[in-house]
C-alpha cells in the first residue's frame, strides 16, 4: 500500500507558467497598440475633418443650392457653432459625418487636388474657405499633420528654388574675375 502512495506523484503546479504566458501576451498586445497608430517615418499623413455638400454637376441650380448651404455652414462655424455637430447634421459623406466629419489619417497624395493643397499648406486648426472638388463643396479643418523627412526636404528645396527664381536667376552667379 505504501508503494501505491509513492507511485502517485503529486501533480506539478504549472500556474506560474500560465500567468507568465498571460503577462507576455499582454505585453505584446500593449506594444502592438502603442506602435499601431504611428505613421512610418517615410510617410506623410494628415488628419482632417470636413463637411461635404454634394451637388449634381449637370444642374447649375443644384450647384448654387449646395454653394449656398456650404457658405451658410461656414458662417455658422465662424460665429461659434460646433463644426462636429454641423458635420453630423449636414455632411453628405456617410463615412465621416457620424464621426463629426473626421476623415482620420490620410496619406499624402490620396485627396483631391484642392483638398490636398489645403491639407498640406493650411495652418492646423484653421477653417478652410469653400473648397470645390469632384465630390462637391467642402469645408475642412486640419487637426494634425506629420511630414516625413523626405517630404520636408523636398518642401525646403522647392521653397529655396522659388526664392532663387524671385531673387533673379537660378542661384548661380558668375565667378569673380581674379584681381591682378
In brief, what are we looking at here?
Helix content is 48%, strand content 16%. The chain is flat and about 90 Å long.
Q: What structural category arises from helix and sheet content? A: alpha+beta
Ranges with pLDDT <50 over ≥5 residues?
A: 170-180
- At the first level of CATH, the class of the domain at 45-151 is Alpha Beta
Architecture per CATH nomenclature, i.e. the level-2 architecture of the domain at 45-151: Roll
> What is the percent of helical residues?
40-55%
The biggest beta sheet is recorded as: 4 strands, antiparallel
**Tally of extended strands?**
4
Classify the fold: give the CATH topology of the domain at 45-151.
Chitinase A, domain 3
Strand order of the largest sheet: 2-1-4-3
Helix-strand pattern, N to C? HHEHHHEHEEH
What's the total helix number?
7
Radius of gyration over all CA atoms, rounded: 29 Å
Strand percentage lies at: 15-25%
Report how far the terminal alpha carbons are from each other.
119 Å
**Mean pLDDT score, rounded?**
85
C-alpha geometry: flat
